[in-house]
Specification:
By secondary structure, the chain is mainly alpha-helical. 53% of the residues lie in helices and 5% in strands.
């Protein structure tokens, strides 16, 4: 993305990221200042994404993906976007990474992410 590559995300992405960050704060993994900085970065990244509303995605296709790969509807949405947009998938979720690989989806290298540290 830093080089101008296209990135697509479901509209719920910001809520999922916010929930993960708040959970990390509650568990003592992130401090208040760390959380504040992460939220600024999330807002900056959000401005560069192309957003897809879940209503624009055929429910039958999501249900089929979710059933076939034993995914939540949320994870099926991420997989569906990667498949239909022919884009690599960026996730730290190991189950979703394995499923994406088995479905022929390229992955963004996990080392391209930084995980919060204590």
């Amino acid at each position: 993305m830093a080089a101008g590559a296209n990135a697509v995300a479901p509209a719920l992405w910001r809520l999922e990221v916010l929930n993960a960050l708040l959970t990390a704060e509650r568990r003592g993994i992130l401090g208040a200042a760390d959380l504040a900085g992460a939220l600024v970065r999330v807002d900056q990244l959000a401005q560069t994404l192309t957003w897809v509303e879940d209503g624009a995605v055929p429910a039958q296709e999501l249900a089929a993906l979710a059933r076939r790969h034993r995914l939540t509807s949320y994870d099926a949405l991420y997989l569906w976007l990667a498949l239909t947009q022919a884009l690599p998938l960026a996730t730290l979720d190991n189950d979703l990474r394995r499923t994406a690989v088995s479905a022929g989806v390229e992955l963004v290298a996990a080392d391209g992410f930084s995980r919060p540290r204590r």
